[in-house]
């Protein structure tokens, strides 16, 4: 594919739109996912309510805050792809088609990022809406503290999530068993994003560490921005920093992959 | 051996009812060799699936080897062999030998009998060269021979094949045909197959069932088929003529015995 | 039937054994995923001494019992929830022409022995919980009964999930809400949930009989709903009832099966 001048300007938005549309065709699967996320949200909410009844004010949240946190993080599972996946890349690496992608006169990383943003936008609505709505109806959730900052934080969270998943996917070029890698990534993401429990209640140095790692930018931080339990400016800066670091790392790996796949021939 | 009385099967596709098979009646006696012909979408595969118990008919009554296929599916499975040309009954990841061994276990075939039969099949179908190859790496012709072997390990009285020669080269086709002919002649196995290859019919079958829009349009010998188009010599042209006629008059295929109920009648 | 299952499972185990590294990694992965749940329990009890009236050892006992049952049911029959893949790929057609129940064939297809890791882990948690609890011998016999009942209940849930996929071919993930949801639900004492939810789980979808009612009996604790203490002894009956419902649903699914159009 040869791009003329100016084509690149509209290429990436168009890719994002394609990503959006492509996922829109799997609406039944998305709704099924939303249903499952909602059910699990209800189960988690009860456990957290029990915990917050035993320790009111734990981690700086009240009960309503803890419930809101639960349903928000469940709503993030789809757009942030917290269980991994969402990219075609591992599949294309396995089949060798990635060689074609790498010789395109457009950045593979930006290409994937655009499609992923489209995907995330669709899933934010379809898989994020139902859990939030059901949470609000069953338990009542609090209103967003700073809506604009929250949306920005979600977008940055998606970029961080993409940065991480892109690295994991590209690592398939070097690691033999990509399933093991997938499990490792899933474990790190689900636990350290705050999906299973708020990172704010992780004890001691372990908590400090968990809150500083990139995964917290995918669920804990946007939820905190929503609840007003984090300073929006600092939170967004934290996410932007990790986004930059992971994207830079991904770019380096793309170069290495191009050398490996294209020049050495796989 | 096979009895179908007024068999019908409908599918609901996006609220529309598709009559895949309707009011189909025929009998196949033990030891017969019958081919089922018909244009794409006529309902041949659906019929085969009902005869083997995969699909439950929406109307009518079926007996195969004296059993109702959908109610006595597992009992029936021991008496019939089934081959799908378009899909394998073997396990993709296992070598052919292991796949056959699994089939042996599932059908509870005695080890000694299994050895003898496998040797015989190796002889007739020339399996020896690829018994150790995983099924996914077999060529279509090799896989088909493996599938036929798997369907016959338990020595069924009836063999049902859905397009067994699809995609095979001239030599493989001839081998498969020759094998089926001998199976029918020497062991007396009843064979029912569907095909789009009229060569199969000419070389193998005394009797033809022509299915069109889910109905039986003709049940007779090859000569009966030829008689529908006097003066045409090639059997291909005879059948092409019949199929084309069914396209232009979709609701009332010419030899159908009774008027069609209303409603869309599938595609031809 | 059991013999056929064992034969199929053994064949797949042998096939898996040809890739020992992959096998080891998957076992380790399963252990780590299971370890996450334990880490969550650890974080919760780092913050509190009791959750909805239950201490750490009691939660370990309840968690271990339900997760052991779930892990075993998942290893033996969890593949049933992949039925939609078999429907889509047409492999169910092939299973239906064999003289063996399609349920056994689907359950044993690609049997993965590495899931035994989860069971060992859950068993260890259960054992630690039990030894720290000092359960009197007169009630300890209920523990194996509840694990077996739990296996039956979870297997029935997998079967119901599979039967559901004959209807919902486009969205088979819905079944996960019941199977994995059931496993998650029973990790904690049911007293954390609203009493209406617990009633539903007792009288409608009998998940309370996996570890909650029999667990209360073993622990010698009164039921918050006020049900008599022998309710826990009804676990096998509840399990068999659900299994019967699941078997009927499965049969209805097979009869409704429409194959694929090619
Ligand atoms: N599972 C199904 N769901 C919906 N419609 C179906 C299904 N199976 C078959 N049909 C429809 O029933 C009709 C008959 O199909 P069938 O597969 O039996 O035809 P066929 O004679 O085997 O055709 P071909 O020669 O192309 O294999 C077709 O119109 C088909 O679209
Ligand atoms: Mg067909």
TrEMBL record, chain A:
Keywords: Membrane, Transmembrane, Transmembrane helix. Signal peptide: none annotated. Coiled coil: none annotated. The chain crosses the membrane at residues 24-51, 63-84, 120-142, 148-168, 180-206, 236-257. It comes from the Bacteria. This is ABC transporter permease.
Automatic annotation (TrEMBL), chain B:
Its main location: membrane. Residues 245-268 are annotated as: Disordered. Pfam families: ABC_tran. The keyword Nucleotide-binding applies. It is found in: Cell membrane. One of its GO terms (cellular component) is plasma membrane. The keyword Transport applies. It comes from the Bacteria. It is a peripheral membrane protein. InterPro entries: AAA+_ATPase, ABC_transporter-like_ATP-bd, ABC_transporter_ATP-binding, P-loop_NTPase. One of its GO terms (molecular function) is ATP hydrolysis activity. Residues 251-262 have a biased composition (Pro residues). Residues 2-238 form the ABC transporter domain. GO terms for biological process: response to antibiotic. Keywords: Antibiotic resistance, ATP-binding, Nucleotide-binding, Transport. This is ATP-binding cassette domain-containing protein. It comes from Microbispora catharanthi.
